[in-house]
Amino acid sequence: MPAQINPDQFLDPRWRISNLYHIIDKKGRAVPFRPWEEQLEFLTDIHSRNLILKCRQRGFTTLMCIVQLDACLFTPNTRAAVIAHKLDDAKVIFRDKVRFPYENLDEGLKTALPVTQDSADTLTLANGSSFRVSTSARSGTLNWLHVSEYGKICAQFPEKAGEIRTGSLPAAENGVLTTQ
User: Fold this and answer.
1) Which DSSP category does 24 fall into?
2) Torsions phi, psi of 162, nearest 5?
3) Span 75-93, average pLDDT
């Protein structure tokens, strides 16, 4: 975390996303998360329904996990989810892109924003927020939903794509939805 922090910066989600979190980079190193130009452009234009058309490995699942984790941490009673095409892949996303950034927060922040449940697929916070990963998110109401590799899901698992379309997307009807 930067040495000189203005407490008002914590009110700005874009500042938090660019300054509070660490990720594992492509070389396997723990590094501060710094959004790329196209990620910042996306954050500027984000709305309630977002389709990300892009080449692979541009960091949008990482970005959306950090955006959703940030929302859960700083907005009580937030519900967030990520859907992946396979449960094992969902758990890897959770481990590397949700739990790792949380575990590597400043200790003071973790004390102020504690976890009450931490499993292989769910992080629940003391403020009533929760973040989960799965292959579907039918039950409940979501404020944030990111569907990773939706094109691949549609091509390889058409029944699962139908479940996402009829169950998961309506769960995020009044929230922010991103698919890539």
Assistant:
1) E
2) -65, -40
3) 93
